[in-house]
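Below is how a single chain appears once it has passed through the pipeline. First comes the sequence as given, then the structure the pipeline wrote out for it. We keep one example in the README because the format questions we get most often are answered faster by looking than by reading.
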Amino acid sequence: MPRATPRGATVNGEKTLRRRLLITGTAGLVAAGALPGTARASGTARASGTVEPDVDGTQEWNARPPRGNVTVLGYRPDRIVVHHTVSANTSDLSRARAHAHAHWVQDLHMDGNGWIDTGYHFAVSRGGWITEGRHGSLRTLTGGTSFVLGAHTSGQNDRAVGIACEGSYHAGAVPPQAQWEVLVVLCAYVCERYGIAPARMYGHKDFNTGTLCPGVLHDMLPRLRDEVAARLG
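Resulting structure:
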């Protein structure tokens, strides 16, 4: 089970205004139509037409320190791999829940798998909140010239950004609209920063035949590629 709500997870004041990414065509950002409990804030629009998403870094969700040194690779990744975390399809869409989910994933990867840190670079909650996974992922993404070695897809960890969606998307389950919209925004930003073509977004099972991950999200990859390409212009 996820641990208790981490320190600083209450949404108030400026925190209430910092999240929830919505774009209306090319006109800019609006906060509208959010589901109850989701945050409602725009990120930063860029000249390219993409949005720099507002990400809760490891410090903000009070992550555990890595158990060893996180390796920074001095080159850009050339693809994105999408995952689902096979956690509960909760109706709690809050920022606090996103932080608790980030802790749940980190504990699973460090204590269950014996890894040094979270394996994914980023996670998108069902409420549309983005959390940094492995330490250093956000800093290197912002820089756009390097990235950290992940632990999410066998054979791809030194060349792919791993983005995980909170939830279990087998047996017909579909991601909430808030999660999908923010996944598109995050993927577009990653593609822009690293020069990744939208066609080079894959699902976990494209590389590891022993998994069904990311479930129905794999069937939605053509739509994801199209929507990311549209944002990139």
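The chain is about 25% helix and 15% strand.

See the next section for the split statistics.
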